């Protein structure tokens, strides 16, 4: 006799994985143009300074960290009562963090983003633990956060 598998499917949907990895490309571009002075110069000449090195890492990182507040808000909307109130309150933290702490020079802004994305991972865990996120959420968030924090760290090193 076989026992049916009642565990939730934690495999990341292909579309979510592809789009999530595509969202990492600007971070990778920022890190690559930070590590390679020739590529950095080419990017600045052809696209402008905002699209190279730490500038792209900080600008895009700020956009994505703020965007993730909206994702968490959507998860909070699935809850009711006190859980919804807590979820809505927590969901605005990444956007407020970005507004108040990302700035003050490249290194400070990059550190603020690294801390912000790691904090976001903690919030992701909380939303997943309360059953507000899909069962595969932590798998994709752990992967994407690792890649993003890695790219941001390279921006600090080079």
TrEMBL record:
Q: Which domain of life is it from?
A: Bacteria
What does the UniProt keyword field contain? Answer: Membrane, Transmembrane, Transmembrane helix
Q: Which InterPro entries match?
A: DUF3429 (IPR021836)
Q: What Pfam families does UniProt report for this protein, alphabetically?
A: DUF3429 (PF11911)
Signal peptide range in chain numbering? none
Give TM regions: 57-76, 83-103, 109-128, 140-157
The family database entries (PANTHER family) matched by this protein are listed as: TRANSMEMBRANE PROTEIN 69
Q: Would you tell me the protein name for this molecule? A: DUF3429 domain-containing protein
- According to its UniProt entry, this protein's organism is Meridianimarinicoccus aquatilis
